[in-house]
Amino acid sequence: MAKDMTLLWGSGSPPCWRVMIALEEKNLQGYNQKLFDLSKGDHKSPEVMAMNPRGQLPAFKHKDVVLNESYGICLYLEIRTWPLIQFVCSHIPPRR
Question: Which residues form the GST N-terminal domain (predicted)?
Fold first, then answer.
């Protein structure tokens, strides 16, 4: 599952760290990642703009799903990996 995931992130960004921690805590190592230097404006590069027209990080892609908000990414990971490791949605019934 993790090999299909790509995370574009910037060092020093708590929202980016939030997503990286969620990926690691859910044992989803092996995802693709690329670090951008926010101080040099790399987050406005064509590669980032293609995933997030606002040019903000983190930007996350899993197969055809693209998400650009850290809380949304974490919720997506929570739902997609349930019931393996559950942090947020303990009241959601299992998917059938």
Answer: 3-85
Do 70 and 80 touch, CB atoms closer than 8 A?
Answer: no
What are the strands of the beta sheet with 59-62, ordered from one edge? 32-36, 5-10, 59-62, 65-67
3-state class (DSSP) for residue 34: strand
First-to-final CA distance of the chain: 19
Distances (CA, A) of 81 to 37, 91, 92, 95: 30, 15, 12, 11
Percent of the chain with pLDDT over 70: 83
- CA dist 5 and 32 (Å) reads 6
Q: What is the pTM of this model?
A: 0.83
